[in-house]
Amino acid sequence: MNEFQQVPQHIDQPFALRRIGAMGLRYLYLLRSSWTRVVELAYWPLMQMILWGFMTQFLLTSESPVIKAAGMLIAAVLLWDVMFRSNIGVAVSFLEEMWSRNLAQLFASPLRPYEWALSLLFISLVRTIIGVIPAAVLAIPLYNYSIFEMGLPLVAFFMNLMVFGGAVGLAVSALVLRFGMGAESLAWVGIFLVAPISGIYYPIAILPDWLQPVAWALPSAHVFEGMRAVLIEGIFRMDLFINAVMLNVLFLTAGFAIFLYVFRLARIKGMLLQMGE
Hints:
By secondary structure, this protein is mainly α. The protein has twelve helices and no strands.
């Protein structure tokens, strides 16, 4: 084989950070080119934080030590938004490729499906940071509460919720790919299926006895219980953290497996050329 017939090394590699980075840059350029996208990312977290922040100010008059724990609802809202934004960040970036009928062009390149999935997780992280950080910072002057005072536990909570939300986002994206654009609403409603049993604003013990095992099977339940332990008791529950990490490994593996399996079916059936508005 002469030099003109050789396949470039970066194309022949079975796994290339170069390709993942290129897709990440593509999504970053989309954000940079539209200020309305950035404003939308920050708008809903800000509104939720403001509404629940004033609710917290009202509840501080209560005699309950649980309710009076500083920033309980504000922290819950911000962490819930991490999980929601992580899910929607994956799903919306995926849907934008579907809306523009760009899948065929993407995969005419050496890009592999799992590299695309990793780039979706990356841009989800960026979108989540853009959305949540302004709300967290604004809570400091408005309510004299900083979620950053949690320190390292906050990093643990953030990463676990990011991974769980991303796993759900990959699974939802696979469903849209399988059932078509008529299922795109799942991108927004899918994560809300687990919200009632994640213990965001209340302990898991409040749930009916038969529902509690289902809740404990979710990483998010362990994260929000851990949050309450930090805010109320001042302790970081390592057992809850380890359980959340182990469950996240299972959920992320399942999310990738579902996404790649459905993508393979779509490619075999020629659905990549048919998807779009």
